[in-house]
């Protein structure tokens, strides 16, 4: 007996849907894994290659010069968000994703074979700075491109879940970089790491980016952008035009992002150092607690994304802001040297932050129309991160040296109040189709 063709087609579509979901999520997030792996190994291995590119009278001076180049790359992120965001609005999300991952692949591979100061003199730090600037452009562009791709590829009722894999993949990249550092420092001598071992993670990251490019090249364009292209409404939009025509959306994104920018760098970048210097924790325990909390944060992302699809974006965001406003100061100040104390403090910070990070891509995409989504998200978000998140470790370190670290926590609480106001005023957009 012949099967009903309509039933057969429905069955084929049902089987294809999970495969398409997996491929879309993988294509949108795989680049983040390798991008953040490449971005992180610079700081992780800076202690080994710093003096080879930035020779100075002492190790501290070399390390400071190395981190100055990190800062230069960091402040390239807004430019990357602007330029590559505009590129994605004109040529497509897929084109932007392939561009960012190739930029990261090329720069990482070149760093892995870059001659040192002893070989080519002052050209060595100049080239390292230029390559790090390219990485900053890539990371800045990747966030906006991946956010728009995941959000535009998602069904309206599952946008929170799809978008949650952005920070899932960022956390995965951070964990891979940290894990590689643990392995290499245990199997290689310090002399070998200084001489040539530091090149290995950059080479691995570059090859990983090339693999990510190969995986992304066959992914389809988003339906929202294809509709825009077919309608003939694609135009070059300047940053100024975006600001004047979408001022409310830009200001809302800034308000929404303030607390998130503080939280990420406070709990992922600085908290282990704070535990060591303030609470007397051992470095091994502090970094183990940090690694465990990041792993827990990563696993929680899809759950929080799906939760917002069911109950809405605003309730999660307001819980996040209220928790920081009320509990951040006493919780952070209570940190002790024990593993349990550090892990509890880190989990408080990262799991409450996870309520925001899991749904940030969906919220940001819902603020803008398809025509300006790339530049709107990329430029505004990366500017907030550069100004607030990028200065968090420095400000916290300086205030701690003055025994006034409580001032910074009060500063973050003020940021929580700003974001709480933005969350309270924003409309609920869960389940609504993108414009």
A few lines on this structure:
It is a multi-pass membrane protein. This protein is mainly α. The chain has 20 helices and no strands.
Can you offer a commentary on this structure?
It is found in: Cell membrane. This is Alpha-ketoglutarate permease. Its main location: membrane. The chain is mainly α. It has helices at 5-44, 46-53, 59-74, 77-91, 93-112, 117-120, 123-153, 159-187, 190-197, 199-216, 223-230, 239-245, 247-279, 283-311, 313-333, 339-357, 360-367, 373-389, 392-401, 405-425. The chain has a single domain (25-217, 234-425), classed as MFS general substrate transporter like domains (Growth Hormone, Chain: A, Up-down Bundle), CATH 1.20.1250.20. Helix 1 (5-44) crosses helix 8, helix 2 (46-53) crosses helix 9 (190-197) and helix 8 (159-187) runs antiparallel to helix 14 (283-311). The longest helix is centred in the N-terminal third of the chain and has 40 residues, at 5-44. The radius of gyration is 22 Å and the shape is globular. 49% of the residues are buried. Mean pLDDT is 84; it is low at 1-19.
